[in-house]
Recover the amino acids of this structure.
């Protein structure tokens, strides 16, 4: 299923075409049965978290926008499962999946959606702005394409400090048309930075299909910067891992950047406010759900491998539902920030008065 | 004490901080091999090498954003904008990312980045190259804004800015680059947010910053000599944080205020100052607060007319006499 188009001699070799083939890829072959169950569980936890947050939104517990990751789980889980201690992740506003994939707990994530002080960003960021630098997760960014230079800078810092890591810089298929993205591509290629630009192509930027927004192949744009690039099926977790492992190696070992397009699909509207009746057919969504659902695809593989059975599948699902419900309970029971919290976390110096070196007023009326 | 140009003082600050902290990186267009568009970074590439002095393509959104990302992971980039005017193409990176990322992460991240370069009119380069965005920058909580007027201030403030853990916008001035002044060659720091009363006086307070402070000092000299009035010149040096105590202390002493800024008036720094002075020292005022700003239009090219569009010594003198009348 993986299609690769060679752009430079640095392009990693072909990784195979069928799920079974990907299961045998080195990064997957070394997974224990328990590791596989955990990967499956992570996707399930994302799915149930998203469904629970949708219910909370409908119950008016959550303000603003809510962009669900349902359907794309194999991308974040596949990519982030390959992270070593010096690998980093940054993404756009559809960030819940990445946050869970890097290991963030559901309680602070749900509490953030509820705008509570116990949220991962203390209720100051909201759905689009989850962060956990302790897990090398740098957000959660609301401006389409705006995070891409930042991810390039994280990679720059890794190289500057001599660390053998990579920064996976995620963006949507709509973001590829932002100028800042191209500036980042050029800098990454020019300075040989260990960054992987991961284009999560779910076919649509809001209500605009790829065909209506982007000229040419998305990944191929890398070629004009002399970067490696490739395309991968994002419905198959094994495939994502096998594919990404090679680009991560290229970044970590040779400090070469790349652009990878991972083809995926979102089942829900752009955000929960999108009635989803103007730009695609119900049949199209159903077709993806029936034949390509990343959780179903991986479940089938693990059932065949006898890593999972019907009972464990049901148990993992039930546990994920309970965990999401408990996160909602936690969020519900948590306090909102105080009015005094509004002006905290603005300036490092204001938050660390003992170490403040400047004088004068930092805040105004 | 050594006499240095303003640009040399900045260079000295850069060199000292580069030598002190291996995480400091100077980055921008033409900063290395070309020795700097305004020769501020001259010689630094030879001294520190290409890892520390980094020439960039013409990609402000790209390299400013890259610098912000690198700062989140412990690098301390000092990014040169050839002109601050070019901040407009990096606006999103500076004012959405650098200004907001600490807040939106609930305080988990900080961005110890400095963005520096000249921001001034008066060089006949037209509207695209003459922006003075200190008010626009300062209206974004999360960033700090510094505008030094003298070589001494430029060095001490830049060193503090580089050591600051918050993003600092450092606005220089091409007309001042050649100005000379005493600059100690030791490791002194000037804290951000401390105004400097550059001339003591009793009849009028001129609150100002940047090149307008230099012009105000000259005007204050004439005011004394030819009109017998004693003006106090308070150079803010830093717009955010702001040394309001120094401003108010001077107002309590002189009871008359003229604000001079090389800024368009609408929502300019002077508007905020005037509001705060009247709110906090209304009873001290013997006259309405006066304000001299740039004449409200895009920067005109025509050289003799541009000189009149900006606050100048004659204009300051006239405005001061108006407040004292
Ligand atoms: C600069 C900017 N322009 C427009 C928007 C509004 N907007 C938010 S998401 C979006 C679509 C982006 O689609 P894509 O990059 O494919 O990501 P996806 O939503 O599919 O994950 C738009 C237009 C924005 N947030 N930022
Ligand atoms: Mg999309």
């Amino acid at each position: 299923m993986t299609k690769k188009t060679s752009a430079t001699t640095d392009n990693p070799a072909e990784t195979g075409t069928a799920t079974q083939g990907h299961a045998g890829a080195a990064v997957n072959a070394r997974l224990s049965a328990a590791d596989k169950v955990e990967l499956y569980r992570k996707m399930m936890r994302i799915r149930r978290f998203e469904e629970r947050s949708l219910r909370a939104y409908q119950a008016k517990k959550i303000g603003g926008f809510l962009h669900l990751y349902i359907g794309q789980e194999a991308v974040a889980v596949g990519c982030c499962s390959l992270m070593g201690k010096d690998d980093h992740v940054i993404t756009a506003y559809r960030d819940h999946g990445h946050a869970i994939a890097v290991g963030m707990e559901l309680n602070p994530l749900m509490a953030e959606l509820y705008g509570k002080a116990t949220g991962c960003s203390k209720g100051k960021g909201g759905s689009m702005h989850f962060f956990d630098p302790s897990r090398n997760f740098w957000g959660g960014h609301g401006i389409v394409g705006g995070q891409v230079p930042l991810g390039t800078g994280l990679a720059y810092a890794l190289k500057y400090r001599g660390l053998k890591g990579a920064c996976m810089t995620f963006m949507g298929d709509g973001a590829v048309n932002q100028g800042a993205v191209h500036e980042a591509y050029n800098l990454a290629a020019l300075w040989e930075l260990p960054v992987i630009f991961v284009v999560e192509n779910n076919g649509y930027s809001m209500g605009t299909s790829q065909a209506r927004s982007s000229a040419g192949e998305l990944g191929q744009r890398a070629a004009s910067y002399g970067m490696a690039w490739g395309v991968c099926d994002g419905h198959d977790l094994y495939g994502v891992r096998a594919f990404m492992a090679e680009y991560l190696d290229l970044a970590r070992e040779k400090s070469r950047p790349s652009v990878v397009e991972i083809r995926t699909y979102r089942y829900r509207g752009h955000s929960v406010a999108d009635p989803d009746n103007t730009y695609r057919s119900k049949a199209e969504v159903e077709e993806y759900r029936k034949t390509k659902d990343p959780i179903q695809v991986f479940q089938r593989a693990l059932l065949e491998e006898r890593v999972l059975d019907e009972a464990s599948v049901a148990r993992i699902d039930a546990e994920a539902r309970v965990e999401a419900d408990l996160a909602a309970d936690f969020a519900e029971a948590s306090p909102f920030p105080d009015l005094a919290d509004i002006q905290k976390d603005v300036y490092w110096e204001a938050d660390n008065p003992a170490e403040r070196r400047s004088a004068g007023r930092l805040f105004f009326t | 004490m050594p006499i240095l140009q303003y640009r040399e003082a900045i260079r000295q600050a850069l060199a000292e901080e580069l030598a002190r902290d291996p995480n400091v990186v100077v980055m921008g267009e033409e900063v290395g091999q070309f020795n700097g568009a305004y020769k501020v970074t001259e010689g630094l590439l030879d001294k520190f090498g290409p890892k520390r002095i980094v020439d960039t393509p013409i990609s402000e959104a790209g390299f400013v954003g890259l610098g912000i990302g690198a700062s989140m992971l412990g690098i301390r980039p000092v990014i040169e904008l050839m002109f601050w005017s070019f901040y407009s193409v990096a606006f999103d990176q500076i004012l959405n990312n650098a200004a907001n990322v600490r807040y939106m992460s609930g305080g988990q991240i900080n961005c110890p980045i400095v963005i520096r370069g000249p921001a001034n009119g008066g060089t006949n380069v037209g509207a695209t190259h003459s922006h003075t965005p200190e008010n626009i920058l300062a209206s974004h909580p999360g960033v700090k804004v510094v505008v030094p007027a003298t070589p001494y201030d430029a060095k001490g403030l830049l060193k503090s800015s580089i050591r600051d853990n918050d993003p600092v916008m450092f606005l220089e001035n091409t007309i001042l680059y050649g100005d000379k002044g005493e600059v100690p060659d030791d490791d002194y720091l000037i804290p951000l947010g401390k105004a400097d009363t550059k001339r003591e006086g009793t009849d009028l307070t001129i609150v100002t910053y940047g090149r307008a402070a230099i012009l105000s000092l000259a005007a204050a000299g004439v005011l004394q000599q030819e009109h017998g009035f004693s003006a106090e010149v308070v150079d803010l040096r830093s717009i955010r944080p702001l040394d309001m105590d120094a401003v108010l202390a001077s107002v309590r002493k002189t009871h008359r205020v003229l604000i001079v800024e090389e800024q368009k008036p609408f929502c300019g720094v002077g508007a905020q100052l005037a509001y705060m002075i009247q709110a906090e020292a209304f009873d001290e005022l013997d006259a309405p607060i006066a304000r001299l700003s740039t004449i409200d239009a895009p920067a005109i090219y025509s050289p003799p007319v541009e000189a009149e569009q900006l606050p100048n010594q004659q204009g300051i003198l006239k405005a001061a006499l108006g407040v004292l009348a």
